[in-house]
Design a protein that fits this description.
The protein is an alpha/beta fold. The protein has helices spanning 14-17, 30-37, 49-62, 74-77, 87-102, 118-121, 129-146, 159-167, 180-203, 226-249, 254-262, 272-280, 331-336, 349-358, 386-404, 448-465, and strands spanning 7-11, 67-71, 106-112, 152-157, 209-215, 219-220, 285-289, 294-297, 305-307, 320-323, 327-329, 365-369, 409-414, 434-437, 443-446. The protein has one domain: Glycosidases (TIM Barrel, Alpha-Beta Barrel). It binds 6-O-phosphono-beta-D-glucopyranose.
Amino acid sequence: MSERKFLWGSATASYQCEGAWNVDEKAESMWDKYLHENNLENGDVASDHYHHYKEDIRLMAEGGQNAYRFSISWPRVIKNKEGDINPKGIAFYSDLIDECLKNGIEPYVTCYHWDLPQYWQDEGGWLNKDVAYAFKHYCEVLFKAFNGRVRYWSTFNEPKWFIFSGYMSGNYPPCHVNQVQEVIECCYHVMLANALAIQSFKEMKIEGEIGMVASYQTIYADKDDEAYQQAIRNADNYCNNWQVETACVGAFPSDMVEKLKKQGYDLSFAKAEDLKVIHDHTVDFIGLNYYSPQYVMPYQGGETVVKVNNQGKNYKGNLHTVVKDWFEINDELMKQLPHNPWGMVIYPQGLYDAIKRCSKYHVPMYITENGLGMYEDIHQNGIHDTERIDYIREHVRCLLKAKEDGYDINGYFVWSPFDLYSWKNGCEKRYGLVAVDFENDCKRIPKDSYYWYRDEIKNNWEDLKK
Ligand code: BG6
C-alpha cells in the first residue's frame, strides 16, 4: 500500500463555477452554446470563481483543507481546432495554481469536466476519433505549462455521465436519445483519449501522477439467484466497469464486449493499435465520485428507458432505468430508501463497498466527489445545513473505516467548496460548504458545514498521522 499524504479537500468543475464565459478570449464550449440556444439557466456567471478564486482558496485553507480539485476549461486554453494556445487562459490557471500553493493547498487538476469546445462539437464531438488526438494535444499543453507545480492530474471526470447523458437520456448536449451505438463509440474514443494522455504524460516525464475520475454507483440487489447475479454484473459493467476497469487494467470488460457483439452492435471501429495504447497506458490512481448506490433486478421487458434527475430546474426527481436485455433499476426498493429531493438515494455504506470492490485493481484510490444537494434559504442568520453535515459525517466515517481496514484510500473531496451551477438543475441545487449569494455579487457566506468540516479534518488529521 502506498504511503502518501492524505488529502482532505473539495471539488469543482470549470463550467459550473468560473463564469466569465466569454472573457479573455475564451472560446465557446458546447454547454455555452446549448444553454444559450435553448434559453436555459446557464453558467455565464455561475459562482464567478474566475474573479473570486483568491477568496475561495483562502476560505479552503482557513477551513483546514489541503487540496483543491478543479478542472481546466479546454476552450479557455485552446482557441481553435488547429490547437493554438490562448496565453490568457494559461495565465488564469497558472495564477490559480500559484494561489493554491501559496495557501498550502495541493492543486488536484482534472483536464476534462465536460466543457468540450464547441469547435470540436461541430465536428461530431466524442463520436469523432480526431477529438481523442486533440485531447492529447490539449493535455500536453497543460502538462508543459504546469509541470512541477501540479502533482495530481486526472484526465477525465466521469466519462459515464457526460456520454450517457449526451447520447442515452439526452438531457445534456448533444441531446441524442437512446443511441446505444453512439454511446459505445464515444466510450471507446474517451478511453482511448485517456490512454493517449497518459502516454504523453509518461513520455514527457511529467512529475507527479496521472489518474482518471469515474462515477461509481455501487450495485446491489435484494436477491441472490443466478438471474439477479447476472443483472448485477450487467449493471456493474454498464455503470462502472467500462470506466474503472478499462482505466486500471487496460482492457474493456470482456463479457461486456461479448454481450455487445451478440446484441449486434458494430464494433468494427475498434482497432488493434488503439487497444494496444489502452492496454499499455493505465492510470497511476483512480478517483471515485460516490453519491448513490443502485438497486437492480433482472430485465423484465419493454424498451430501454433512462430517466435521470437533471431535467431542468423544476424537475423533482422521477428516476427510472430499464436497459433492454441488461437490467432494470428496482424502483420500488429505491423509493423506500432515504433520498434527497431529486430522488438520489443516500447510502453511506455504498462508499465503503465502492472502495472495497475497487481495491482489486491495486491502485491508490481517492474519493474525488461526495456531497449533498439541497434547496437552501441562504438569507437567514447562519446557514444551518445539518442534513449536509450528517451526510458528510456518515460518508467520512465509512471512508475512515475503509482506511482502517487497510484499503489504499488516500483522500476525500466534498462536492463542493462553495455553491455552484448544477448541470440543468441550475443554481438552486446547492452543494457548497460556503453559500454563494448569486443575487448579491456572488457574496460568500460560510455555512455550518464549512466549520464542521474544518473541525472534522482537524480531528481526523491527528488520527491519520498515527
Ligand atoms: C457529478 C459531477 O456527477 O455530480 C458534477 O461530476 C456534478 O459535475 C455532481 O455537479 C452533482 O450532480 P448534480 O447533477 O446534482 O449537479
